[in-house]
Amino acid sequence: MTSHSPRPVADLFAADGRLKAIPRKPARREALLAHLAAALFEADRTYSEPQVNDALRSVHDDFPALRRYLVTGGFLSRTRDGADYRRQQQPGSPGGAIPAVA
């Protein structure tokens, strides 16, 4: 299996809709984060940290890690005090991960 075509994120979820594990590979994690941001958070809406935690807790127990990945990956923005979160509009990159800016 040497092909690098992106796999769907559906195989990361158990039958009950919960995430089996947070992927270690950056490209898989980026695909998952893009999916979670689109599925759990509406654009143009502000969320409190407890609302973000509750949404992420619905898919995985390690919601602090998911929240951190979403923020550091640019999928969610948050205010300096961490009180408010908003979904970011990502530039489309069909077929793969969003390039890292480092």
What would your notes on this structure say?
The chain has 102 residues and is an alpha+beta fold. The chain has a single domain (26-102), classed as Arc Repressor Mutant, subunit A, CATH 1.10.10. The chain is 33% helix and 10% strand. The chain has helices spanning 26-40, 49-57, 63-72, and strands at residues 46-48, 76-78, 84-87. It is globular and about 35 Å long. The N and C termini lie far apart (29 Å). Residues 92-102 have low confidence and may be disordered. This is DUF2087 domain-containing protein. InterPro entries: DUF2087. It comes from Streptomyces nymphaeiformis.
Give the CATH architecture.
Orthogonal Bundle
The helix content, as a percent range, equals 25-40%
Give the C-alpha Rg: 14 Å
Biggest beta sheet attributes: 3 strands, antiparallel
The H/E string reads: HEHHEE
Strand order of the largest sheet: 1-3-2
* Count of domain modules: 1
SS elements, strand count: 3
Q: What's the overall average pLDDT, rounded?
A: 85
What would the CATH topology be? Arc Repressor Mutant, subunit A
Strand and helix layout:
Elements: H1 26-40, E1 46-48, H2 49-57, H3 63-72, E2 76-78, E3 84-87
Antiparallel strand pairs: 1-3, 2-3
Helix pairs in contact: 2-3
List keywords for this structure.
102 residues, alpha+beta, Arc Repressor Mutant, subunit A, 3-stranded antiparallel beta sheet, 33% helix, 10% strand, globular, disordered C terminus, DUF2087
